[in-house]
Design brief:
This protein is α+β, with helices and mostly antiparallel strands. The protein is built from 8 helices and 6 strands. It has a 4-stranded mixed beta sheet with strand order 3-4-5-6. A two-stranded antiparallel sheet has the order 1-2. Strand 1 (about 25) and strand 2 (about 30) form a beta hairpin. Helix 6 (about 115-125) crosses helix 7, helix 6 (about 115-125) packs across helix 8 (about 150-170) and helix 7 runs antiparallel to helix 8 (about 150-170). The longest helix is centred in the last third of the chain and has 20 residues, at about 150-170.
Length: about 190
């Protein structure tokens, strides 16, 4: 079953994080990440009934992963979870991987349950990525020893470190505003 054929239970409510955080480049709609979609009303989509297919078929991890409460909703958690269908073959714990896009700063990573959930995915051999409006980084290898040792403070510290490396790469010009490598990064 494709994501387009699947409709998870519940609704987005007033969350419009995907309307701002995602980079979209299709014939029907083009917008850069960090820019609110022109059709967003601030509490939903102004063209909901006729919205483009890229929007119709998109569901964030909060909508797709069973067991997440309202506190995991992206506008409340500061984390937009994206499904990653194409991930390294050695991660066989799930058919897809997950990219945790950190939008709410370090506080989002420090929220109760975040490190524990990521550690659970890593322990089950699921591909886990982290990004901060930037290229995603596969983080399993950085966490596996900490997870195996049950070192949750160490997992949190490593997540914060990777997040801050993403911010530093953007600040120093190694990544452009869209999260792509600049020529400086290749020198």
């Amino acid at each position: 079953m494709s994501q387009e054929e699947f409709t998870p239970p519940g609704s987005c409510g007033s969350c419009v994080v995907c309307c701002e955080a995602l980079n979209i480049n299709t014939p029907q709609i083009t917008k850069k990440s960090g820019v609110l979609c022109q059709h967003c009303t601030g509490g939903g989509c102004g063209i909901y009934q006729t919205r483009p297919q890229v929007c119709r078929g998109f569901y964030c991890g909060w909508r797709m992963i069973k067991g997440f409460g309202e506190d995991w909703r992206p506008d409340r958690s500061g984390i937009l979870i994206l499904v990653v269908p194409d991930h390294p073959a050695q991660y066989t714990g799930a058919a897809t991987g997950f990219n945790f896009v950190i939008l709410g700063g370090e506080a989002a990573i420090m929220r109760p349950g975040v490190s524990e959930y990521i550690a659970q995915l890593v322990s089950h051999d699921v591909a886990v990525f982290l990004s901060a409006d930037s290229l995603k980084t596969l983080i399993n290898d950085f966490l596996k020893d900490l997870v195996a040792a049950g070192n949750m403070p160490g997992v949190t510290k490593m997540l914060l470190h990777i997040y801050n490396l993403h911010l530093e790469a953007k600040r120093t010009g190694l990544l452009d505003a869209d999260g792509n490598m600049t020529e400086n990064a290749l020198r």
